[in-house]
Design a protein that fits this description.
By secondary structure, this protein is an all-beta fold. It has 1 helix and 25 strands. The chain has a 4-stranded antiparallel beta sheet, with no helix packed on it. Strands 8-9-10-11 form a 4-stranded antiparallel beta sheet, with no helix packed on it. A hairpin with a 3-residue loop joins strand 17 and strand 18.
Length: about 325
């Protein structure tokens, strides 16, 4: 499902945004249940649950979030804590508060909560001064106000940015500096570092790392972009990058149209089509649903985009 903020209220559409007891009627945007009149300022979507943060920093959640949001109403998660950032994974949630603490809750499988204990929200020890968080399907990222990045959870395919076989390892520092944004997808991760440079690591089966090949990256790998990046979004098998000029580039799977038809060197490939029938891993034909290097999303060029988000389930994705 999808949720956005419209005039200070969280609006959702799609399948079970608050669990099986609440669905958006007729698959059209509908306002989520709310308490009070405070304006909503942030929202995060998991698999069958939604987390909303209002202007006072109150975080509320509803749906199928293990141990935290068992019903269709949005109930407060940390009533006495002012939340500044939120991210939802497949079945867990990460929150950063105004004291720089990172909270985690939900499904504790694969070490994605970064701590022992039950599914109730609790502070992740060993990290502080946290500014941003990113929850993937089974892994987690958090970065500090000074740009230090930490990762924990399921490490397969390299999605943590380092090699480990310990599924219960505590948050570990990733070899990157100056991190200003991060996104955790299903099996991969994207990070924006100093001067708008993007790094990618993890599964690369569909080209979602944007490196021009299909090899997984177990350490952060630099993605070649046409200009500096502002923020990133990692989906199930695709990726989006918002550039400083307001354009958006995408790479990875476009099987469900989640890249908006982005293709590399469309004009060049059209002009050269009469001379050669060859293709390479850096371009895509009409029969090829995988984009292996960053390509501009044509429908968003010149639109002045200010934010991007990428979702995805078992075998699909959307943007």
């Amino acid at each position: 499902h999808t949720s956005v903020i419209v005039d200070g209220a969280a609006v959702a559409f799609g399948f079970e945004p608050c669990g099986g007891d609440w669905r958006s009627p007729g698959h059209v945007p509908s306002q989520l249940p709310r308490i009070g009149t405070a304006r909503d300022v942030a929202v995060a979507c998991g698999w069958g649950f939604t987390v909303v943060v209002d202007a006072f920093g109150v975080a509320r959640a509803g749906g199928r979030l293990p141990g935290l949001a068992p019903g269709s109403s949005l109930r407060p998660l940390l009533p006495k804590v002012r939340v500044l950032a939120v991210s939802a994974g497949a079945a867990h949630v990460l929150l950063a508060d105004d004291q720089g603490r990172c909270w985690s809750g939900g499904d504790a499988g694969d070490g994605r909560l970064g701590r022992g204990g039950a599914s109730e929200l609790a502070i992740v020890e060993g990290v502080d001064d946290i500014k941003g968080v990113a929850a993937g399907a089974c892994h987690s990222l958090a970065f500090t106000s000074k740009g230090t990045l930490y990762a924990w959870g399921l490490a397969s395919d390299g999605r943590l940015g380092f090699t480990t076989e310990d599924a219960s390892a505590p948050p570990t520092r990733v070899a990157l500096e100056g991190v200003v944004d991060a996104s955790a997808g299903k099996y991969h991760s994207l990070v924006v570092a100093s001067e708008g440079v993007v790094f990618a690591f993890g599964d690369n089966s569909y080209g979602q790392l944007g490196l021009g090949h299909a090899d997984d990256a177990w350490e952060p790998a630099c993605v070649a972009l046409p200009s500096s990046a502002v923020c990133v979004a990692a989906g199930a098998s695709h990726s989006l990058v918002l550039l400083e000029d307001g354009d958006v580039v995408g790479f990875g799977s476009d099987a469900q149209g989640q890249l908006g038809g982005a293709r590399v060197d469309d004009d060049e490939s059209d002009s050269d089509s009469s001379d050669t029938d060859s293709t390479s891993s850096s371009s895509s034909s009409a029969a090829d649903d995988e984009v292996w290097t960053p390509a501009r999303v044509p429908g968003l060029c010149g639109k002045g985009v200010v934010a991007v988000a990428a979702g995805g389930g078992i075998d699909a994705g959307h943007s």
